[in-house]
Amino acid sequence: MLELKNIHISFNKNTDNKIDALDNVNLEFHEHQWSYIIGGNGSGKSTLLKIINKELIPDKGELKFNSYKPTDVMFIDQTTIKNLVPSMTIYENLIFALKNIGMNPNFRLFQNKNYKEIVIDKLKEFNIGLEKRINEQVKFLSGGEQQIIVASRIMLSNPRILLMDEFTSSLDQKWAPFILEKLKKFITVNNIMVIAVTHDYSQIQNIGDRLIMLKNGKVFADKKKENFDFTTQSILNLFYEYE
Amino acid sequence: MDYLGIIEMGIIFSLFVLGMILSFRLLGFADLTIEGSFTTGGAIFAILLSNGINPFLSILISIIGGGVAGLLTASLHCYAGINKLLSGIITLTMLYTANLRIMGRSNIYIEQTSVLNYINEPWYEFFVLLIIGVAIFILIKFFLSTNFGLYLRATGENESFVKNLKSNPKKFIIVGLIISNSLIALSGCLFAQYVGYSDIGNGNGMLVSMLTAMIIGENIVRPTTLNRQIISAIIGAISFQLLYSSALQLGLKPIDLKIMIGILLIAFLILTKYGYKGKQSKNIGANFI
Amino acid sequence: MKTIKNLSIILLAVFLISSCNQKSDQIRIGVIQYANQSILDSVYVGIQKKFNEYNEKYTIKYQVAHGDPILNATISKQLVKDSVNLIIALGTPSAQAVTNDTKTIPIVFSAITDPVGARLAATMNNPGGNKTGITNMQPFDKQIELIRLIKPNVKKVGIIINSSEANCVAGMVYVRKALEAFQIPYEEMNASSSVEIITSAQSLATRCDVFFISPSNTIYENLGALKKEAEKKGIMVLGGDQSAVLKYGSVGTYTYDFVEMGVNTAELAIKILDQKLNPGNIAVSRPANTYLYFNMESAKELGLTVPDSLLNKAVK
Questions:
Q1: Which pLDDT score is estimated for B113?
Q2: Which residues of chain A lie closer than 8 angstroms to B142, CB-CB?
Q3: Rounded Cα–Cα distance for residues C173 and C169 (Å)
Q4: Contact with chain B for residue A85, Cβ under 8 A
Q5: Measuring CA to CA, how many Å separate B52 from each of B45, B108, C118?
Q6: What's the pLDDT tens digit per position in A212-225?
Q7: Residues C88 and C210 both lie in one domain
């Protein structure tokens, strides 16, 4: 369980432009839960993710997670290519994931067969032939194919907490449902905690377990799938309440 | 033409270009310290040798000296927050004084008992250089093939990626610059032994010359993979020496050699850009040059 | 594939180039100069002058390395590979490179201030090996003596030096000896750029009444600025070479004629070739003639009188 207690952080503290990015936020996240964070511009969504990622330190409050190692948290950036090293091959990009789970694909001079097989098997799951192209540089793949590589990286890394900053909403139209379905299955099987920021409300219905809406740095709404209808219309209604 | 001399100097400078590739291409760090570390390698070796220290030990200490220079530049950037170019320039400036102080004068003659001259046969010198060259290249290839090397390359291309992996990019920049400047100091040390003296001006013009060598190498062997990038160092350095010697053989006056180098550089750079035809470059590594 | 194509083009070019060979029955002399500096350039003028008298008997190949160490090494090796009959080297790194690259081709170095320190000669009398030459260590003792003769009540001499120049460091040893011999107090400051020279001059100007020109190339390149600072405080500038006195207002100096030094160098080379001498046995020499120069205008401006006995010896 991840606990955020009384989190408060402001920017531009000593100026007239002081903004309270997050104000007295109290939240609990559980494994096996896919939470979506929504809200208007500047409501604190990205800031919240950065605090969980330990990129920012809150001014007040604390973050609690039992036996938390930094490598337990995986952060996925909005821009796909930022989650990859462009001129490295597919295989090299995925090695980072393997390292994360304690494997040691060192001495690649000798091209360790086992690790290559693991990577190939994972790519095969997507059924589009990427496993045959593992020595191609990632920058030459199409947008959708790059997103599949990122998804593969997520799955091979097996993080305890997955943070996604608008990744799901920036997915290629063609590939979005496919990738999301695979990710959701993976998350469920492996008990991973997902906290995703999005502006694409259509996904939330199929995949989200929980919806958190932020307004001006405060938690405005916190709805669970069991208690709330995750259709786009009802979400939009929330926004009207918001005003 | 002195082919043996060309290959020998090619080997010596291939170490320099390899160091440049490590910092400029793989780390994406335009490290201007290199003219200074080159001279430092020769300076430390010369002063130690003239004080009776064993030549092998002297080479080792010269390498460490280069490493210290690299450490300084990296620290200035990582811990003092100074930008990459400026960090290199600051260290370079300080190295000028350091090198003079190390030698105690601006020029030291190197005795015949240095490593390259133990046995006074021409084949011995070539043999030693070949062994050193091959050994270093294997070591560096090995180093870059490890996970550390992988992370180092990632740092050069996408620092935030490395940070997101909860790794500290500073670590890689520091080690990378230490190794690249050590390589360059080794190159300087071997060069000083090869020409028989260490002079405060030994590093002059090296940046542009070796940059030209690197780019020539990359045009002959497009560095689309790590192996090719490493090989381009040797090919580039030897081709550069060939060019120099050929030009002189053809009767080109040295005064015109510099402009020839400039024209060559421009030509190869344009060739590189046209090779892409608007597509993305297939080369690995940073392409700000 | 592209790589192999590229490589083969280069190899072909190299093969074609290397088949350009110059064979000649003339006596070939390779002149290698490290960089363009006024002294070295003047020496070469003298060398050329002397060889021109011989009407095609000698072929001179003149190459300047422009301060580039790789070029220096390449030129040196090329000369050795071409088996020239004799090498003339101007500038310490060039002399060192050729000394290292050949133990058989006779080498004559010139305008080297400290041949022993640079290990170009074992001793001045017996350089050893296949090399000898002419040193341009200035007659500092005579220059310092001039200070005493023209300005007997000198209080302190200010000297700007550049410790990164071997020649300057070597020469200053003699300068200091002379100053101590004549019991003249002095102060040194280090400068390696034009700006530093100006600021050093300004600082020294407050404590000294004479500026002595040290044997540093950087100083020689900035004599105008030095004179300007000196003029502000009525300080006498002394020393330097011919143009320092004639153009830059140094009151006087003893110096060599560097063109003449070049002629001497060529004569030495010719002697070695003609008589098939071993250079190592020939002592390193200083130019025979020193020339006394005065700048009467500068002297007048400072209210100094030059004794007639000296004036008579000077070059007009």
A1: 64
A2: 109
A3: 7
A4: yes
A5: 11, 14, 18
A6: 888 888 888 888 88
A7: no
pLDDT at residue B264 is higher than 80: yes
Q: What is the mean pLDDT of residues B194-211?
A: 92
Mean pLDDT throughout C174-187?
A: 92
- Tens-digit pLDDT profile for residues A95-107: 888 877 766 655 5
Contact (CB<8Å) A73/B146: no
Structural domain count, chain C: 2
Same domain assignment for residues C299 and C195 = yes
Q: Chain-wide mean pLDDT for chain A?
A: 84
* Residue B187 belongs to a domain: yes
Opening angle at CA B170, ends B166 and B176, nearest 5 = 120
Same domain for C192 and C232, yes or no, is yes
Residue B216 lies in a domain: no
Q: Number of folded domains in chain B?
A: 1
- The Cα B25–Cα A198 span in angstroms is 36
Q: Which residues of C touch B187 (CB under 8 A)?
A: none
Alpha-carbon distance of B63 to B71, in angstroms, equals 12
Taking the alpha carbons of A233, A234, A237, A239 in that order, is the dihedral positive or negative? negative
Give the mean pLDDT of A6-31.
83
Amino acid B52: pLDDT: 87
- Residue corresponding to tokens 């001079």: A109
Q: What is the mean pLDDT of residues C291-311?
A: 85
What residues of chain B lie within 8 A of the CB of A82, using their CB?
A: 158, 160-161
Lowest mean pLDDT among B129-143, C2-16, C244-258: C2-16
What does the block give as tokens for C105? 């081709």
Measured at the alpha carbon of residue A112, what is the angle toward residues A111 and A113, in degrees to the nearest 5? Answer: 105
C312 secondary structure, DSSP code? H
User: Mapping DSSP to helix (H, G, I), strand (E, B) and coil, where does residue B28 land?
Assistant: coil
Contact A/C (≥3 CB pairs under 8 Å): no
pLDDT mean over B200-228? 91
Domain that holds residue B39: 3-201
Does residue C9 form part of some domain? Answer: no
Q: What is the pLDDT of residues A152-189, one digit of tens each?
A: 999 988 888 999 988 877 777 788 888 888 888 999 89
pLDDT for C24 beyond 80: no
**List of chains touching A (3+ CB pairs within 8 A):** B
- Is residue C295 assigned to a domain? yes
- Which pLDDT score is estimated for B10? 96
Structure-model confidence comparison of residues B93 and A227, the more confident one: B93
Is residue C45 in a domain?
yes
Domains of chain A: which residue ranges? 2-242
Domain match, C301 and C188 both: yes
Residue A22, H or E segment: strand A19-29
Within an 8 Å CB–CB cutoff, is residue B142 touching chain A?
yes
The stretch B195-213 carries a mean pLDDT of: 92
Comparing alpha-carbon positions, the chain C residue that sits nearest to B199 is: C93
From CA B176, how far away is CA B174, in angstroms rounded? 5
Between CA C106 and CA C52 the distance in angstroms is 21
How would DSSP label each residue in A164-227? EESTGGGS-TTTHHHHHHHHHHHHHHHT-EEEEE-S-THHHHHH-SEEEEEETTEEEEEEETTT
CB B128 within 8 A of CB B229: no
In sequence order, what are the residues at sequence separation of 6 or more whose Cβ sits closer than 8 angstroms to the Cβ of residue C96? B107, B109, B195, B196, B197, B199, C118, C119, C120
What is the ipTM metric for this complex? 0.85
Supply the pLDDT for residue B240: 93
Q: What tokens were used for C113?
A: 């201030």
Residue C4 belongs to a domain: no
Look at residue A109 in the predicted model and tell me its pLDDT.
46
Residue of chain A nearest B138, judged by CA positions: A109
Architecture of domain A2-242: 3-Layer(aba) Sandwich (3.40)
Q: What is the pLDDT of residue A178?
A: 85
Chains touching C (3+ CB pairs < 8 Å): B
Provide the 10 A C-beta neighbour count for residue A28: 12
